[in-house]
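Table S2 (continued). Query chain:
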Amino acid sequence: MTAEPLALYVHWPFCVSKCPYCDFNSHVRSGVDQNEWREALLADLAHEARLLPGRTLTSIFFGGGTPSLMEPKTVGDIIRSARQNWDASDDIEITLEANPNSVEADRFADLASAGVNRLSLGLQSFEDEKLAFLGRAHSAAEGQRALDLAQEHFERVSFDLIYALPGETQADWSATLDRALSRARRICRSIS
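Corresponding output:
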């Protein structure tokens, strides 16, 4: 008999700033007690493991908020604890959402070392004016740098773009998609 698959979601509710379009449970804090949150997340994980024994872990998703603000040690401890509590599938995907801010991008190598194998990057746009409208804390140049760094450190990278901003035309969106697809094609060519 095969064990039932299990996907684990870990929520980090803190952000550098609150984007005006965001409806998720997220809060701006100048500081977070990382040790206290690490211990609370690990205690909750142990509780869930007692309720769901004998399952096979197929994915771990760190969402938020902005989980790239978590200390890589916290991420690593959660991944290790999850693997101790459940068998992990051979192809487990461990995803972490990240913003392109420089301070967060500088953590990518440590997050990869902690066990993250897929990064989901919140680019939202390739244009500074649109990023400012969206209340994003990064520039287009920072987004490009973060995407380049992510591709150096993670075998899988995805990124978000926002569609239908005020004043955006079909031609504008087509240009954005062309830019995104050319980026994806460049990635695919470098892999093959």
